[in-house]
Amino acid sequence: MEQLRLVAGLGNPSAQYIDTRHNVGFMVVDYLAQKQGVTFTRSGPWSCDWAEWGETLLAKPLTYMNRSGDAIGILVHHFKIAPSEILVVVDDIALPLGRLRLRPSGSDGGHNGLKSIIEHLGESFMRLRVGIGTTLGTEQLIGHVLGRFAANERETVQTMIARATEVVEHVAQNGISSTMNLYNRAE
Q: Containing domain of residue 58, as a range?
């Protein structure tokens, strides 16, 4: 079983993006840090907020979503982390709100944050896709992913973030295969 050495939650760093759908990766990593009692530190040279959770680094790139690979690439190089030891937490419009999908590797699936990381590391890193759902066309898509969750979605979002955090903890303790068997099922 590979050791989990880096958990990267993807999002956009400016205050205007706090609690938006596109920042679900940040929300999961923040929730994990709070639950584990660890605190993030800002690092200019690494272009991220980061924390140590035992032997595992938690990171939130400050490079904006479309350049996430720049910050992840710096961390991976500095700490000599193999792509297979990385778990990226990212929003996914193709999954219904609340649904989670854990994979050991794969394509970017049209997600620019994953595309940026793949450009730096290849496709061999784990990813946890967190469903934010949409039925909108391309025109409204940007507004959807950069929008906040509706009041009637908040309970589902809180449950989803807690479950996604459990997934990360389970991967750290038991590896990806066991975790996929438990958590990739529909609720």
A: 6-183
The reply to whether 120 belongs to the active site is: no
pLDDT band at 158 (very low <50, low <70, confident <90, very high): very high
CATH number for the domain including 159?
A: 3.40.50.1470
Phi-psi sector, 41: left (phi>0), alpha (psi -120 to 50), beta:
beta
Three-state helix/strand/coil letters over 10-74: CCCCCHHHCCEHHHHHHHHHHHHHHHHCCCCEEECCCCEEEEEECCEEEEEECCCHHHHHHHHHH
Domain count for the chain: 1
Query: Considering the domain boundaries, does residue 46 fall inside one?
Result: yes
Tokens of 59: 């990171």
The pLDDT mean for the chain works out to: 91
Exposure string over 111-145, b if 16+ CB within 10 A, otherwise e: bbbbbbbbebbeeebbbbbbbbbbeeeeeeeeebb
pTM, full prediction: 0.93
| Catalytic residue chosen out of the listed positions 22, 77, 78, 144 | 22
Asked whether residue 150 is domain-assigned, the answer is yes
> Is 1 within a domain?
no
